[in-house]
């Protein structure tokens, strides 16, 4: 160790000095450093004794730096900044990425898969922006989005198909007739139909089931697909949802398909990223992870 290092003051004393010089108050400095006020005062007395100079004037209401203290503090702050910069080079901060999705997509598909992503990508700090309204890549600081619709979504965007819109009916197993695996199409009218904001039941009944919707059918309406799905799990009726959103519930037996038909929709799900990205490497990592997870969901459902 160089000889000069032996004459350096203790690091904790220098931290106490820098915080006290910033606040000009031992009590506030102690709160910042999570130590007692007495410990800060002791560090300062020891530092002054070590240096052989007085760093603070003790006033009735607070502190004032002496001329020696004013000369000393800028260099101490620079030294702490150098230590901080050197540490960041060894432990880089995670890249902060914002992913824009709908609340139903977040609740039913994305959130259950996040722990595995976080475990394998410690240097990607994901912020989930879940909203029914369309978020802006520029104004909202979005790095990657899952959009439902039909391309093109705009110039300067890269688009990959994540899921086709495959609409199926789902309900709690207890709604099935005893010993049956499905509900007869003609008996659908006897059940409560759970609607979301997409209101696909009339189209589904006509195109997939081959029946017209009757006006007498009972309905409950929700503004989000995830709420309709949860109501179906609770046995409150039959919901319509994209197959991938209910894949986990079907696999776990919480939901079943009471009708052996599906409707191919026109509003597919896409992963969308700007061509010019703020953090290209982590953005591509998230994009590829989403696509890989999408492939796995389709293969298992």
Automatic annotation (TrEMBL):
Pfam families the UniProt entry points to: HTH_1, LysR_substrate
Keywords carried by this UniProt record: DNA-binding, Transcription, Transcription regulation
Statement: the UniProt record of this protein carries the keyword Transcription: yes
Highest taxon listed in the record's lineage: Bacteria
Name this protein carries in UniProt: LysR family transcriptional regulator
Gene Ontology molecular functions: DNA-binding transcription factor activity; sequence-specific DNA binding
Organism: Mesorhizobium mediterraneum
SUPFAM superfamilies to which the protein is assigned, alphabetical: Periplasmic binding protein-like II, Winged helix' DNA-binding domain
Domain HTH lysR-type span(s) in chain numbering: 9-66
Ranges in coiled-coil conformation: none
Alphabetized NCBIfam families for the sequence: PRK11139.1
GO biological process, one term: DNA-templated transcription
Protein family membership: Belongs to the LysR transcriptional regulatory family.
InterPro entries: LysR-type_TF_proteobact-type, LysR_HTH_N, LysR_subst-bd, WH-like_DNA-bd_sf, WH_DNA-bd_sf
